Amino acid sequence: MSLDKFFDTVNQDQDNYVAKLKEIVAIPSISCVAERRADTVRMGEWIIAELERLGATTKRVEPGTQQLDGQTVDLPPVVLATYGTDPSKKTVLIYGHYDVQPALKEDGWNTDPFTLVEDKEHRLIGRGSTDDKGPVLGWLCAIEAHQKIGLDIPVNLKFCFEGMEESGSEGLDAIIAAEAEGYFKGVDCVCISDNYWLGKTKPCLTYGLRGINYFGISVKGPAQDLHSGVFGGTVHEPMTDLITLMASLVDSQGRIRVPGIMDQVADLTDAEKKTYEGLDFSHADLHAALGGAKTELHADPQDTLMHRWRYPALSLHGIEGAFYAPGGKTVIPSHPIGKFSIRTVPDMDPHTVDKLVKEYLEAEFKKLNSKNTLTIICGHHGKPWVSSPDHWNFVAGAKAVERVFNCQPDLTREGGSIPVTLTFQDALKKNVLLLPMGACDDGAHSINEKVDRRNFVEGIKLYGAYFHELAAVKTE
Ligand SMILES: C[C@H](N)C(=O)N[C@@H](Cc1c[nH]cn1)C(=O)O
Ligand SMILES: [Zn+2]
Ligand SMILES: [Zn+2]
Known about the structure:
Blueprint: H1 4-12, H2 14-25, H3 37-53, E1 57-61, E2 65-68, E3 71-74, E4 78-83, E5 91-97, E6 117-118, E7 123-125, H4 133-148, E8 156-162, H5 172-179, E9 189-192, E10 204-209, E11 211-220, E12 226-227, H6 228-231, H7 238-247, H8 270-274, H9 283-289, H10 301-309, E13 313-320, E14 331-332, E15 337-344, H11 350-367, E16 373-382, E17 385-386, H12 392-405, E18 410-414, H13 420-428, E19 432-434, E20 450-452, H14 453-472
Parallel strand pairs: 5-8, 5-9, 9-19, 10-18
Antiparallel strand pairs: 1-4, 2-3, 4-8, 6-7, 7-20, 10-17, 11-15, 11-16, 12-14, 13-15
Helix pairs in contact: 1-14, 2-4, 4-14, 5-13, 12-14
The protein binds the ligand C[C@H](N)C(=O)N[C@@H](Cc1c[nH]cn1)C(=O)O and zinc ion (2 copies).
């Protein structure tokens, strides 16, 4: 079977695909703030319209409401769609998310985050370009290219696109559980494109993710912010308590200081250690992704990967309600909320993690003898996931990589979290493959997020080739 015509069409039509990416990057579908909820819903509606234009049957599912920024708001729709129902074909379920992380030009972007621009190195820069609008659009472009040349897609496609992945996938697990024997019945395998290659040139197949527990530390003092000249030295300052608590969570070598956390981590076996040996990863790749900074914690690249994939990490994210703007405001913030998360790994249990963190911070706060009020906010959870890369779904993914990139993919785990992965595996009892298009230096969640034009275009080819390899692969 030759896919050359499909590949040629993708090459020829790439400017149209990039124009579509520009259209959707312009929709600021930030799921974590109420004022962007209407845009997030609009983004979901754009996908429904595009799927219908391609001839898919869609189902818009409303997951309910949530409390956000002091309001009750509708959760964005979960978009389910079916393309092909031939009982003689395999059926693959494709998941992606259409929400994005916040982004402001003032964060340090060189260009407006919601205007996709292409620079001289053919980087397509804009929020969501790699996480996850580029990959989501990529699947739809692969269908379009097949249609254009009259090439049959040899598998049935089901889609599940959500708008809350960056905010804990609220509402999605219940929909999957309710539809496991309904909409999702007949699915043979699952594919997700929402992570990144190990380096900049070689694709990978991914069989593991870390989980996440997200926290807030609220320290409340006076009823309003104070003048530090009038009140400094006379009151317990909430920021002082908060900074002390945040500093107690992790040391500068990245070691988590909450007792009991490391006790839950699965032991490293010899077999697992071997999986790190042949990997094409050096600290040069890490430095590239750090924008040239050489600030690694570990001397050995294998240790770096283990600490990304199979050990937990605690990261401090920010402080809501604290003064952060330029200039020298002499304020005592009255109610700062510190944000941090723990990336979790097998065999950590999210509820045990919450309990250990809460107990530890309350005990540390007691030591401060402060008259302020502490509240620990246990936010969203996502469980870690590890699966077997020996399944035929991975064989099809590897063959697709070989066809498009002429090389064997790396087999990787991922340090980030996609909470729904384990839900699909458990609820549908089917293998899940992560098949990314983005490179290690794409800067997801960061400033100047990008996807390289090459990755976007070759990624569309990869998805199309995967359809054909899935159809051909032996399942015994
Ligand atoms: C790996 C995926 N593209 C991703 O970025 N996932 C997020 C999920 C999340 C959890 N809380 C907020 N976002 C991540 O790993 O941070
Ligand atoms: Zn993300
Ligand atoms: Zn993502």
